[in-house]
Amino acid sequence: MLDKQVLVEVRDLKKHFKVGRKQILKAVDGVSFDINLGETLGLVGESGCGKTTCGRTIMGLYDATEGEVYFKGEKIHDVSAKEKFNLTKKMQIIFQDPYASLNPRMTVGDIICEGIDIHQMYKGEARTKRLHELLDLVGLNQEHASRFPHEFSGGQRQRIGIARALAIEPEFIVCDEPISALDVSIQAQVVNLLIQLQEKLGLTYLFIAHDLSMVKHISDRVGVMYMGHMVEMTASENLYEKPLHPYTQALLSAIPEPDPDYSQSKERIQLEGEIPSPINPKPGCRFVSRCRHAKTACHEVTPVIKEVEPNHFVACHLFDC
Ligand code: SF4
């Protein structure tokens, strides 16, 4: 079997924010993982777990506090403005809010072609041809190019956001909760579009979401974040069939089941206890105040993520040898 080719490497990445004089909010606090060429890595966790900050720091939208990100073996942070400019052609982001992320004063055509114009990729007729190709790719019509964002529904606006991300032919796209602001009926359409585009264009995704059922549908592997740490990462099917970290088990137990018989027999794990503050967090496991398996070591020693089964990584003292 051929080895998987790594596209993005994230090494001990930290993003801390200063809050007041002495307080530090540790939004991302030392995460490491690879994203393989052509795969979708899902990143899940509750609001405030650091998943969006992680995605934006990988993209270089935030400077990293510590750690490294490599794209095709090349460092992304601490590079010259010119190198960063070239890298942005290869890495794009689809934002969460299709209402706020499109300039209301620009036409759809100009929004989609902004990157093309900045990178001077196409002009005149070639630009128009490329614009029409992009509209077609995302299921919009050519006549939509002269309209303004307010004339579109939420799902259509997210299609515009996807076309904008695709315009400069990226290889890697961070999908930052791209469906959470949409109606449930539209979410599946957008996810299916992203899957089709991935197959057609050979894209690699980091798909950030808090809806675990949708993440399962699109992801090859899934990472679970809790308070700035990666607590579990494995193949998507494995995570949903055999979650090992107590936090992942609780998250998955809360997913509604379509089968009422199964739903009644399924144990629902209620997360109790206070959610600790990510500002100046204490040593020990960050999940300790809500974990029903907590033991003494959990209050004192921060668990390190390690491979507990082939390709199944967990950060929890229950798996210390
Ligand atoms: Fe629970 Fe301890 Fe594991 Fe943290 S390390 S998840 S507190 S058992």
Structure description:
With about 325 residues, the protein is an alpha/beta fold. The chain has a domain at about 5-90 and about 170-235: Rossmann fold (3-Layer(aba) Sandwich), CATH 3.40.50.300. About 35% of the residues lie in helices and about 25% in strands. α5 (about 155-165) runs parallel beside α6. The chain is globular, with a radius of gyration of 21 Å. Bound molecules: iron/sulfur cluster. Iron/sulfur cluster (SF4) binds next to loops.
Give the structural class.
alpha/beta
Distance between the termini: 31 Å
Shape: globular
Write the H/E string, N to C: EEEHEEHEHHHEHEHEEHHHHEE
List keywords for this structure.
321 residues, alpha/beta, Rossmann fold, eight-stranded mixed beta sheet, four-stranded antiparallel beta sheet, 33% helix, globular, binds iron/sulfur cluster
